[in-house]
Structure of Riboflavin synthase:
Amino acid sequence: MFTGIVEELGEITAVEDLGDACRFRVRGPVVTEGAKHGDSIAVNGVCLTVVDHEGDEFTADVMAETLVRSSLGALSVGSRANLERPMAVGARLGGHIVQGHVDGTGEILERKPSDHWEIVKISLPADLPRYVVEKGSITVDGISLTVVDAGPDYFTVSLIPTTLALTTLGHKQPGDPVNLEVDVVAKYVERLLGSSRGADR
């Protein structure tokens, strides 16, 4: 489990085509400290398993399903990526509960800069708007954010200078894809309500 609090902005240093998958090599001095084979690291919000670790880099295999359902397929050598290790038991939950299971991809639609923050408008796939509410939580490229406005097929978030400086959202432009993970609590509530309604019939 992750919290959506990005630990560092890493860099893709190699991409190996494996046919029905690919292998990324990622540089991240913070997240690789103490890393070992089998550990989990979130890369732009996608939970990946460490295959190998050497120095300040780690490798992770990404299967075709993940490449199709996330924006990881758009990464290339030199791309920056948000990195986070799983939350330690007993640690503070700084963001919200993030599983690292991407629900879909959105697209940056618009950026409106201000003196001290920036409003970013992001599109929503057709099956996700029902989980997104004003002042609720959403994960964008692995970043825990609060929804400012929830539209029928989009939402907006307000980014502070720290988020702009230390994550990929400081560099993404209109047309760029982003990984989205909605609040898992909303999905459980929907399932439970559906089950209870079915039982009443």
Q: What stands out?
A: The chain has a mean pLDDT of 91. The chain has three helices and twelve strands. The radius of gyration is 17 Å. The CA atoms of residues 139 and 181 lie 5 Å apart.
